């Protein structure tokens, strides 16, 4: 399925769609199993709170709920600069830049960590929107709308690249077509919002822009 209108900008989820943050969480927890359990607890807290609370506080609370050592939360932020983009990211985003498409990111974290993470992608973004900037966590509409406002782009012409299923109704709810970069192969639970395409790599992104 193709977008209804030509795409002039692409906005990405940062910490899953572009960067391998799973490895960081697992390393900070010193266990893949503990890292996954901790991350899931964090996501439940984040999606449930809506209005912004300090990211670092949610990370610590999630560690306690998941039975992970409190030191893991400090390790996560201390090792933040070890985040790395998925292998195809520089090539795919570089191609978008060459085609004159503006790029942005919307991320559920603090402004300090969000900007650090965006720099690690290695490609310049026109806008970097964090939950701390807007006062709300995704999938509330405010972060997505902030990116659209700062880009000055029409929602129908702005593709959102989701990293998790929660981003699908969040971005679609403000009128953006959605591509789900489903790296982990999670099941899609059908609801009112459907992505244009689901793929386990960003290489498929070009199919929507041709």
What are the salient characteristics of this protein?
210 residues; alpha/beta; Rossmann fold; 2 domains; 9 helices; globular
Q: What class, by secondary structure content?
A: alpha/beta
* Gyration radius, rounded: 16 Å
Largest sheet, described in full? 6 strands, parallel
Number of strands: 6
Provide the fold topology:
Blueprint: E1 9-13, H1 21-29, H2 32-49, H3 55-66, H4 71-78, H5 89-98, E2 102-107, H6 111-121, E3 127-130, H7 131-134, H8 141-151, E4 158-162, H9 167-172, E5 178-181, E6 197-199
Parallel strand pairs: 1-2, 1-4, 2-3, 4-5, 5-6
Helix pairs in contact: 1-2, 1-4, 2-3, 3-4
In words, what does this structure look like?
By secondary structure, the protein is an alpha/beta fold. It has 2 domains: 138 residues, 3-Layer(aba) Sandwich (Rossmann fold), CATH 3.40.50.1000; 61 residues, no CATH class. It is 42% helix and 13% strand. The chain has a 6-stranded parallel beta sheet, with helices on both faces. Strand 2, helix 6 and strand 3 form a beta-alpha-beta unit. Helix 3 packs across helix 4. It is globular. 45% of the residues are buried. The mean pLDDT is 94.
């Amino acid at each position: 399925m193709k977008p209804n209108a030509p795409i002039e900008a692409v906005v990405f989820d940062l910490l899953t769609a572009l960067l391998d943050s799973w490895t960081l969480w697992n390393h900070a927890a010193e266990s893949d199993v503990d890292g996954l359990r901790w991350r899931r607890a964090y996501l439940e807290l984040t999606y449930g709170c809506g209005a912004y609370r300090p990211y670092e506080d949610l990370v610590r609370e999630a560690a306690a709920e998941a039975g992970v050592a409190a030191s893991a939360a400090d390790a996560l932020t201390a090792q933040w600069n070890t985040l790395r983009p998925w292998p195809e990211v520089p090539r795919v985003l570089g191609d978008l830049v060459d085609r004159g498409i503006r790029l942005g990111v919307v991320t559920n974290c603090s402004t300090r960590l969000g900007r650090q993470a965006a720099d690690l992608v290695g490609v310049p973004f026109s806008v970097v929107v964090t939950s701390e900037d807007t006062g709300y966590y995704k999938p509330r509409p405010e972060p997505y709308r902030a990116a659209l406002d700062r880009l000055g782009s029409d929602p129908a012409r702005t593709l959102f690249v989701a990293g998790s299923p929660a981003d699908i109704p969040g971005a679609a709810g403000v009128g953006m077509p959605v591509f789900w970069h489903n790296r982990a192969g999670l099941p899609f639970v059908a609801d009112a919002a459907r992505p244009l395409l689901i793929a386990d790599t960003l290489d498929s992104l070009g199919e929507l822009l041709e």
